[in-house]
Amino acid sequence: MPLPILLVLVVGGIGAIALVLHMLGLSARRVFANESEAGAVWESEFPDDPARQVILSHDHHAALIDTVQGQRGIVWPMGADAAARYLIGATIRKTGKGLNIRLPDFTAPRISLRLDQDEADKWAKTGGKRR
Amino acid sequence: MNYPDVTQIAVPFFIAAIVFELVWILTKKRGGRYETRDALTSLLMGAGNVVVTIVLGFVAYGFFMFLWGLTPLDLGNSVLIVAICFVLDDLRYYWVHRYGHRIRWVWASHVNHHSSQHYNLTTALRQTWTGTFTLMMVVRAPLILLGFHPAMVLFVGGLNLVYQFWIHTEAIDKMPRWFEAVMNTPSHHRVHHGRNPRYLDSNYAGVFIIWDKMFGTFVPEIESDRPEYGLVHNLGTFNPLRVAFHEWLGIFRDMTQSGISLRDRVMYAIAPPGWSHDGTRDTSDQIKIKHLERTPEDRDTPGFNMR
Fold first, then answer.
1. Would residue A61 count as lying in a domain?
2. Which of B15, B50, B117 is closest, CB to CB, to A78?
3. B19-26 mean pLDDT
4. What is the rounded distance in angstroms from the CA atom of residue A49 to the CA atom of residue B119?
5. A83 contacts B15? CB cut-off 8 A
6. Chain B nearest C-alpha distance from A117 (Å)
7. Inter-chain contact A9–B294, Cβ cutoff 8 Å?
8. Given 3-state DSSP classes, what are the helix, strand and coil percentages for chain B, each rounded to the nearest 5?
9. Residues A17 and A45 in one domain
10. What is the span of the domain harbouring residue A42?
11. pLDDT tens track for B69-110
12. Given A30, A59, B75, B191, which residue has the most CB atoms within 10 angstroms?
């Protein structure tokens, strides 16, 4: 196949599919129904250290986790799915929309959380350390 | 004889099939999920793979032509020889794929294919950018030394990849029984992509599932344990560069840390993913053992009786 045609097919195909998916509403972020659901995400990532306490954000898009081994972690949406990380070594900064968390982790370097101002204050204070 | 580049020819079919699967899922309200950024990352990984193949393809092809110059054998280009080459190359695929899950150096290249938490036709295109660096091209050397022309070997390898495209779907539950017995199918490959402890390191087949049955790595899809897709520790990024290179960086960091022996440094590259010098991480074998400690009733069920 001539390279220009391949290029048009690949670039055009990718762009068109992404646009269609977005317009179909398939860019929505995951909503955690309750604390149990967020805790289950944590436990599927870290079965040796399950959640002892789960604090769900007001909009149900993220959760702060206290683990049975005394660590603090975060669960947040990856599109329609989720990721989870310990907050060890995290730099947490308040932004106008919530919190910006930087982790020393190449696979999850930055987490932007949309939080109410009051919960952003609370999470920023407690996020990096065990209560 | 000229052999076409079937993977490039198949690009329009790939795009059409993705659109068809999406329409199917949206109309039937079952058979899988799509998410914009996940699909976009998969498609960009696929495009990057095409670019890398064009740019670095000469390395493998040069190696194969070097071997072709060495061998006195030439099996010709009959249909029968192409068919035999296809089957033997599928056996080659099985072993390269198995190495890809059991040797971290090779896993570093293959991990990106498993990094999506979705399982749809775009996942099939989430291909490596760094396959050349694994040096797994050497596993094709016996085929060429036996007298299969390099162009034929690459042709059947392309057919193998094109076959594997359609099995990356949840829209198809099970194929007819005879087909499931011999061929790799959506059901068998869903198992391969499962991050459930039961499904780790199973179903490495490309086209023929018989290799897994022969070499003891076959696990059937269990209705009560539906595959959850992705990695043991899922990525927190959709950035294709991070998806493509994260495990290589992990190997580099592990190998260059201070205070470990030379053996440990080598093991960080060649041991199974999850190996660590201080036992702070888990390999898939250890994950299975820990799962059985928590869930002893799963003992001796499929996926927990392989070793």
1. yes
2. B117
3. 96
4. 27
5. no
6. 24
7. no
8. 60, 0, 35
9. no
10. 35-126
11. 999 999 999 999 999 999 999 999 999 999 999 999 999 999
12. B191
Q: Are residues A63 and A92 in the same domain?
A: yes
Query: Out of A3, A21, A76, whose CB is closest to B39?
Result: A21
- In A, which residues are within 8 Å of B8 by CB distance? 1, 6
Q: Residue B274, exposed/middle/buried by CB under 10 A (0-12, 13-18, 19+)?
A: middle
Sheet order of strands, A81-86 included: A51-56, A63-67, A72-78, A81-86
Q: Which amino acid is at B197?
A: P
Instruction: Read off the pLDDT of residues B214-241 as tens digits, 9 standing for 90 and up.
Output: 999 999 999 999 999 999 999 999 999 9
Look at B40 and A18 and tell me if their CB atoms are within 8 Å.
yes
Q: Do residues A17 and A40 both lie within one domain?
A: no
CB B125 within 8 A of CB B113: no
Is there a domain that residue A131 lies in?
Answer: no
Residue type, B230: G
Number of structural domains found in chain A: 2
Pair A126, A64: CB distance under 8 Å: yes
